[in-house]
Specification:
By secondary structure, the chain is mainly α. The chain is built from 12 helices and 5 strands. Helix 1 crosses helix 4 and helix 3 packs across helix 4.
């Protein structure tokens, strides 16, 4: 299972720019911690965060629409695929069914895969806006595993962010971390991953095949909700309760 932003496309900075622009243009107050806080949030969550925490004077749906349209406009001009992304998808897809489990909206996921010519490589795609909670909660990965018809413990996630790794581990997946140099992962997060690589070109079929032999005891269970709640301040849920029901 692949994350999208920061794994297949170099987009974290683009999301950040689009959100900052919307905040600036609509009376918001940007916070230093806002970028890290919103990584992994679903669109209902980050749009509510921008309205309630950053003070953007728009409705949640309007915030989401403006940010997403800005991103799609950029992608249609130039899709910033990360090195080795297409090759990694085709390499692993020749052996296993693939999924996308992403915090991006459905519209963004479909646009990226269509522009990259990869739509047919993925059996299923899941946006965290389609499940109750975004990352670091496990919902998006559990839903992806359910749609694939596979137990989570038999799946492997490829993630770049702290909340993404936490989400995959919480769901019980084996996890490959591909850290983004712009947003380095802490040692506590890296220790949770089964494997850390520097780029997608490092991920091979043989590497994934060897996971069963290297699986540690800490992956014999899922993190419970109390553990997820204990994640440090970079967790978006640390000072914000999420959008209203």
């Amino acid at each position: 299972m692949f994350d999208l932003d920061g794994v297949l496309v170099d987009s974290e900075q683009l999301w950040d720019q689009a959100r900052r622009q919307v905040a600036t243009e609509h009376a918001g107050r940007w916070r230093e911690e806002a970028t890290a806080a919103m990584q992994g949030m679903s669109s209902p969550e980050w749009s509510a965060y921008m309205r309630d925490t950053l003070g953007v004077r728009l409705q949640r749906e309007e915030i989401s629409d403006l940010v997403v349209q800005s991103l799609i406009d950029h992608y249609e001009r130039h899709l910033p695929l990360l090195p080795g992304a297409v090759e990694a998808v085709r390499r692993l897809g020749s052996r296993w069914p693939l999924a996308v489990a992403s915090s991006a909206t459905r519209q963004v996921i479909d646009t990226v895969l269509d522009l990259a010519g990869l739509r047919d490589m993925f059996q299923i795609t899941v946006s965290s806006e389609e499940v109750p909670r975004g990352k670091p909660w496990p919902d998006v990965y559990l839903e992806a595993a359910h749609r694939l018809g596979c137990p989570p413990e038999s799946c492997v996630a490829v993630e770049d962010s702290a909340n993404g790794v936490r989400s995959a581990v919480a769901a019980g997946l084996r996890t490959v971390a591909v850290p983004n140099p712009e947003y380095p992962l802490g040692e506590d997060v890296l220790r949770q991953a089964d494997l850390t690589v520097t780029s997608l070109t490092d991920i091979t079929v043989d590497m994934i095949d060897r996971f069963d032999d290297r699986r540690g005891g800490r992956f014999e269970r899922r993190l419970d909700e109390e553990e997820i709640e204990s994640f440090p301040a970079s967790d978006p849920h640390s000072d914000w309760a999420g959008p209203p029901d």
